[in-house]
Amino acid sequence: MLIAEAREGVSAALGRRELLAGAVGAAVACSGVVAAGCGDGKRDSGKPPPAIPMCKLGRTGLRLPILGYGGAALPSAWGNTLSIEARVELVRYAYDQGIRYFDTAGNYMESQPIIGEALKDRRKQVCLVTKVECTDPGEVRRSVERSLKELQTDHLDILVMHGTPGIEQMSVRQAMKVHDEMVRLRDEKVTRFIGMSAHGYFDKALALIDTGGFDQCMLSYGYVPRGYDQIWSERMTRLRDACIAKAEQKGMGIVAMKVIGAGMLGAWSQAVVPGYDPQRLAKLPAAAIRWALQDRRIDLLNIGMRLKEEVDANIQTITGKHAYTDDDRRLLSDFAERLYRSDAVKAMRIED
What is the dihedral of CA 111, 347, 237, 15, to 10 degrees? Predict the structure, then answer.
């Protein structure tokens, strides 16, 4: 089975997420002070955006809204049809609605320059995260220098070892050599913290987490057991859950990605399962977010958003009732049953 019913009963383990609906002025952030509902922008209704619940990102001590912005949603090659100017405006809109964690990478094409332009005058109010996708330790510094230039900043808040290209293509020993270079950059204050990410290959990820050498981890964690181009076996899912348990034990910040199945439960749902009821499709992203929020060990959800409407919808879900309902369960189960028979999933490799 690609997914078991038991996965729907994810343990609501004692966690570190603090759902403070009224914490507008309480967030001590990256380089300055961040408020979950602050910013210069307002919605079309003229009402200020709702305060996003806050988290403490593990031992980093950063206090952030629990919804982060995934910069992989920005490249035109990956489905964003907006102009460059509109995408800059989109990122700024996400900031104005209270989002403060912005994740990107050098291989996300125009994502870094867009985020850099959108946030250059709000640098002290955001947590800026990018990745090292090098497998050669000698290339790490050059990669980071390029990222800093594109992001229009002189430092990062979190520098993450990319999952792929990166950890997936390396042995644990090779990855730790790249880690050594990241530590040097942290010592030089080029970055405040270092992290790692994994779409799968959770055996290697678990070994890296166990070293205690990372402040944060970002792991694929969603109802659909998928990574970048793979669907996992139950064994790999168990290893991913072991990664979360070990990361919590180590005091690491834990960030979930692929929450909406890299769009399979969101923007691309109609394309991957043609003919599904459009009204039910519209409810999938919120159900997927509530599924992930069951696990209180997860600090922050990093979600790609291509449109202002997606930003609004996800904030509405995050600031609303978090209870995972029977309707959510039935919807996700029914859609997933059809999704796993789809050509899109059949084309993906199975990781065991």
Answer: 30
